[in-house]
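Q: Could you fold this chain for me?
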Amino acid sequence: MPSPPKPDLDEPLWHGRLELPATRITGYSLEVADPLSGGHLGDRVRRQAFSACLQAWREQFAAMGIHPFGRQHTQHIRQDRLDALLHQGGPAAAVLRAAVEDYAQQFADVARRFLRQKGWRGVERIVVGGGFQDSAVGRLAIGRAGELLAREKVGAYLRTLHHHPDEGGLVGWVHVIPTALLQGRDALLAVDIGGTNVRCGIVRAHRKRAPDYSAAEVVERDKWQHADDAGVTRREHVLEGIAGMLHRLIAVARRRRIALAPFVGVSCPGLICPDGSIADGAQNLPGNWESERFHMPSGLESRLPKWRGEPFQVLMHNDAVVQGLSELPYMADVRRWAVLTVGTGLGNASFVNR
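A: Sure. Below is the predicted structure, expressed as structure tokens.
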């Protein structure tokens, strides 16, 4: 397969870009103070917050001598087991539904407070992403929070991500990559770095099939739970792990003759500066990602091979922003919308369509 001509980029290529052809990012990584705890509002609805709700209800049932989950600590109970217990009914399901109600009340309150923020005023739709909604318990909780908001007629309604949570933060890159880089190509590499997992994938844009990128899909992906890897204590360990995953995906693209662009989009928590540094918000990652001596894009570029004679260009953006952008084709009927991503922390971003 001959290499396409090197593109003449007519679009600015910088990290954390806020102005995109179809939408404008009005804000992300907002840290709203929680008057109840003195911390951040997002802490009330991150994944661990549901575990806290469930633990509180388990303790109430335990006081009555009822132990439907056994003696295992709440944080150690796998999500698939919780889903199974929810479907089985009985005392365990009753405890789970009580925890779901508490969490949903908290989530609805957090959504209301975000809607009062400057960048969120006039938001008509809130998309909920992140790993929590990839479970029956999570979907039930988000659905209940949506019912509460609809009853109050706040002007915005909740819905969950179209894509699988492991893929939304990858697919969104088709809306960020300069179109010139896709000239003669139809795929790109994408990375989604979270506080618990790293996801990497090959994303096919399918522009000819759907110019709005609604047909974009992840055709190959890999996942690494770095938080449970005892050998990962420094940011360089994460970089090496990501580079290894990308080397495997590059080999897959070569073997399958995928028309890959020499581009890697990296979604990462925190405030992303135009030069590719991280100003704030990466505290859940191993090591200090906000150091002036650390530049993740160039560090990853140096660990990657050339693709058909061209070096890979690495571009960074906030993970909630990119996950939100995966929903762009489904937002034609609204002008202002936003995303909340529930994971190790609570990511957020808001958008205004052009």
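A (continued): The longest strand covers residues 260-268.
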